[in-house]
Each structure stands twice: as structure tokens, then as C-alpha cells.
Amino acid sequence: FFYPFDRFKQEEISFDDEQEGLSDQIIIRFSHVVAENTPKGLAAQKFAELADEKTDGLVKVEVIPNGTLYTDEQELDALMNNDVQMIAPSLSKMTKLAPEWGLFDLPFLFQKNEDITSVFSSEIGNSFLRLHEDENITGMALWSNGFKQMTSSESSLKKPEDFKGQRFRIMPSAMIEEQFERLGAEPIVMPFDQVYMSLEEEKFEGQENTISNIYSRRLYELQNYMTISNHGFLGYAVLMNKEFWDHLPEDVQSSLTDAMDETTTWMLEESMKMNKAQLGVIERESSIDIHYLTEEEQGKWLDNLQPVYQSFLQHVTEDFVKEFVEERV
Ligand code: LMR
């Protein structure tokens, strides 16, 4: 058992000393691995502002970006140990806890942004948020960073054969791994904070990510080709330490839920705008060759990738995802 205010009393004492009346302030440390100027970075900041506003300053959310506190390999453990109270890992990285999250890594699962928002707000979305209560994790929301694109230093990626022999950095997810293998490429799992340097050191030839990550980490400067393929989806599970959450007063929980709902609505819209705007900047300001995958080319990718749906069904036990996928295979 622990009391949520203990952390504040131990660690923020100097700040608190000077400010009469704030001794009951609740500190939530929110750690994430991307830059501040990204959909996730901005949403974390917005949540902090709204939490402050809706609790009249009682709750202070400290956002720690860029993986400076915990890398994506460490942050789930840090959350479960209450070293931080909030994180927002990619859904792909959640497959470490349950293969069900691999649903969101299935190729061409979503066709358009509206598909994402409708699944997120459905019963399936809610089921995912409750999936890890036994592991001391409460799901607060699902956020979206939209669609992933492919980049390479070697060749323009149009046909499945173009992937042959190239190494691609991927997030840790069996479903992503299988896709690259089915395209004849070699997937290499690597944490996000090492991607830029490893590309510089030519540890792999290509990678997949959203425009906002390709832009904010300047990955486009190290790659010669980009295919706007929208082949995969990058979402985030916004998670809170459950014990911490359960010990918050009910009115604080309700204000934080409101703050999160408002943030989520804002971020789903904002991430679309941001990815679009930053693609424009890359197009204007860099020499990277950009190819838009045609429908015919997409069909060929899918011919190779479709079996991943069957593999997924063999991995999972939860009926709510099985039903969802079975409708599509
Ligand atoms: C990645 O590792 O490529 C992404 O998950 C980073 C992020 O959190 O957007």
C-alpha cells in the first residue's frame, strides 16, 4: 500500500516549502519517449494544462519527454513500480504484456482516420483499457499518431521485391516482425532513442514510422527514399499506475477523466493535422524522394502481408479481438 501524496512530500519538498497551501498538491510524473513537438508530446502537455485547470491547481502533471527518464524498454516497469505514474507507450510496445495489442499492427487494418476514431471509441477500445488491471495498470485513453510510412537509404519501396535484403528498424512486435519477413526484409528491433544514431552508423537501411516521428527526429535527412504507404498504424496506450489512481479522491479522478477526454479529442484531430503539415515541410525542404503507393502496389503488398492476419488469430485468446479480425479475413 502506498499513499499517492507521499512522493510529493518526499521529492518536491523544497518547492512546496515556499508555497503555503500547496502541501496537498498531487504530482503525476508523465514520462514519454518522443520529442515535445509531436502529437504525443503536445497532448501530454495539454493534459497537464487541463489537469491543472480542472483541479484548480491541485494536480500538477510533470511531463518528461524524449525518454530522458526512462527509455521505451524501461517505461512499463517504471510505471508498474510507480517510479512514474503515467506513460503512453506505442500499442506495438504493449504486445510485450499481451499479444492482443498486435491487432493494431496488422497491415492496412485502418483505411482512413475515421476508422481509427470509431474503433477507439467502441467497446473494443474500452476492453483494451481494462486489459492490464491485474498488473496494476489502468488504461486512461487510446491516442493516435496516424499512419506509418516506409523509408530507406537504398531504394524506392514500391513493390514487395524492393524490400529484399534490406534491414529495417522495427518496434518490438511479433506482427510487425512477420510483415517485414514476409516482404523479404530483415527486421531489427531497436528502441526509439537509438534510431537516429543507428541509421547514421548504417546498422540498417530502412525504417517505418509516422511523419511526425520522421520529421521531429530528422530521420528524413538520413534516408533517400520515402513511400507514403499508410501500411501500418501507430497508436498509444495512455496508462496510469492503478494503485495510484485508485487512491485519488473521486472528484480528482473525475476531473482528470474530463481532462483526458478533452485531450484525446484534441489529439486525434491534431495528430492528423501535424502529420500532414510536416509532410509538406519535408516535401518542400528536403531532397528525399517521395513516392505515393498506388492502389495496385498496395494490392501487391497485401498479397504478401495478408497471412499475418491468420498468424495473429493463432496468438490471441481474447474473444473481443478475434471477432473483430475474423470479420476481416
Ligand atoms: C517508435 O518507437 O518508433 C515509436 O513508438 C515512438 C513513439 O512513441 O512514437
From TrEMBL:
GO cellular component: outer membrane-bounded periplasmic space
Keyword Transport belongs to the record: yes
Alphabetized UniProt keyword annotations: Membrane, Signal, Transmembrane, Transmembrane helix, Transport
The keyword Signal belongs to this UniProt entry's keyword annotation: yes
A Pfam family per the record: DctP
GO BP: transmembrane transport
Family: Belongs to the bacterial solute-binding protein 7 family.
Official protein name in the record: C4-dicarboxylate ABC transporter
